[in-house]
Amino acid sequence: MNTVETAQERKAPGRPRNAQADEAILDAVLEMLSSGQSVAAISIEAVAAKAGVGKATIYRRWPNKEALIIDAVAAMKGALPTPAGESVRDDLVMLVKANRSGRAQKYGKATVCLLPEFLKDEQLHHMYQAVIEPRRDVMRSVLRRGVQSGELRPDLDIELTLLMIQGPGMMQHMLNWNPNIADDGFAETLIDAILRGAAA
What residues does the HTH tetR-type domain cover (predicted)? Predict the structure, then answer.
């Protein structure tokens, strides 16, 4: 599977989309995942009941449950962030913070519940990758720009550095392994630690 359409990219047939219904449906899915329900346990009927809409409203927007869940994940991640392009450090801090804001902060447990599902279901995993990779590409571009501008080491391993940034962020957000690091200073602390080895 090369590409996956999100709800924003699909054209809904019939009547115009209702933004409030969309929000209610996506939030219902994220709330169910955050409460520990597996993908298998979630049904379109249950989502419709929780969102206060009819099943037909959901099926007009999403062809199946898997597409709905992936769109809920995309909504949780939010819009693709745009780095300012002036400072590699500032851009990396902004990108880490972007992964921990809005719905991502409210429904953080949803990711924990989904990880086993992605490992078991190859199709779901590919759909998730289609949501995540554009965000990873933004961070890659910042790191490459830093190498070109001389802010970062010329021999920097881009993929390893990307992993070093995203891994701790995910673990801290999901498991809070270091309770001494406050949320409002985590991004700066993480990026400064990595730049001590990655900076030129």
Answer: 19-80
